[in-house]
Design a protein that fits this description.
Layout lengths: L2 H16 L3 H14 L8 E6 L3 H15 L6 E8 L4 H14 L3 E5 L2 H5 L6 H19 L4 E3 L4 H13 L10 E3 L7 E3 L7 H10 L27 H13 L5 H8 L10 E4 L2 E4 L9
């Protein structure tokens, strides 16, 4: 594909964000940034790109919102190669060129490190990835890393925490790092629906990595074929089934963690301290 074709496809992708997908993608992205104060004056944000549809769209949305100049902030587009095979690495680099995203790539041996782990290798991989991203972002002078988790990830996490973890918690829109002083994690796609991300991808004829680790390379196709079995996929299917009889189930799950009534909660933890309703029960009346 020649350079003119690259430029034309990049132009189409950017124009679709401003026009066709402005209401469904750019507006909720901008709303999340404003509502949760994700972008602030003087920020230097490391936009973390995994090679999937979510993080690459997030990179384009950051480029677009930066043009609005409502506040001054800098961007670094950071790609960590944890041990991708050659085809997956080349696809990430190709998409970055195609979409005009100036990526910085650093390498790690995370895939090799977790290859021998039998229990919760995905959890360990995710934790190690985040540590490497924080570390390299800080070296680049960044004070924030941006991850591509979207609205569907949030509601699935809420439900999984209840059904699998016996707790009520959510995936927060931003978090202070406990291990890297002065660093913060933000999730600007917090209010963007996955179906709209897929629609943007398909409208622009783009192909991204779905799954690229050693454990699942057999299914690392470039579309969302749903072949990977996981607790998250089970939860996604459960929500889809519930939606058949309750069209508001997704928004209800999301809003449930915005409407927690502590007067009706038996026990809760705050800042690591456990509180029980009996603590003040006899003093209320």
């Amino acid at each position: 594909m020649n350079e003119i074709s690259y430029e034309e496809r990049q132009r189409k992708a950017e124009e679709s964000i401003r026009k066709k997908f402005h209401k469904s993608i750019f507006s909720p992205f901008a709303k999340a940034c404003k509502t949760y104060k994700l972008i602030e004056e003087g920020d230097r944000i490391a936009v973390c790109i995994s090679g999937g549809k979510d993080s690459m769209l997030m990179a384009k949305l950051f480029q677009e919102i930066q043009k609005h100049r409502q506040c001054n902030f800098e961007l670094k587009f950071l790609v960590m190669d944890p041990g991708y095979n050659k085809a997956n690495r080349e696809m990430i680099e190709y998409n970055a060129r195609l979409l005009g995203v100036p990526i910085t790539i650093f390498e790690s041996n995370i895939f090799d490190a977790v290859d021998t782990i039998e229990k919760s290798p995905c959890y360990l991989c995710a934790r190690m990835r985040r540590g490497y991203l924080y570390s390299n972002a800080k070296e680049l002078g960044c004070n924030k890393i941006a991850l591509g988790h979207h609205y569907d990830d949030v509601i699935e996490t809420i439900l999984m925490a209840m059904l699998q973890g016996a707790q009520i918690q959510t995936m927060m829109p931003k978090l202070h790092s406990t291990n890297f002083e002065g660093m913060e994690l933000i999730r600007p796609l917090y209010l963007v629906r996955e179906k709209d991300i897929c629609a943007w991808r398909d409208y622009n004829g783009l192909q991204f990595l779905q799954c690229a680790c050693h454990f699942t390379e057999s299914c690392s196709t470039y579309n969302e074929d749903g072949t990977t079995s996981s607790k998250r996929l089970e939860t996604k299917r459960l929500i889809a089934e519930l939606k058949k009889t309750n069209p508001y189930v997704e928004s209800n799950i999301f809003r449930s963690v915005e409407n927690v009534n502590l007067d009706t909660v038996i026990e809760y933890k705050q800042h690591g301290v456990r509180h029980n309703f009996l603590d003040d029960y006899d003093n209320l009346f």
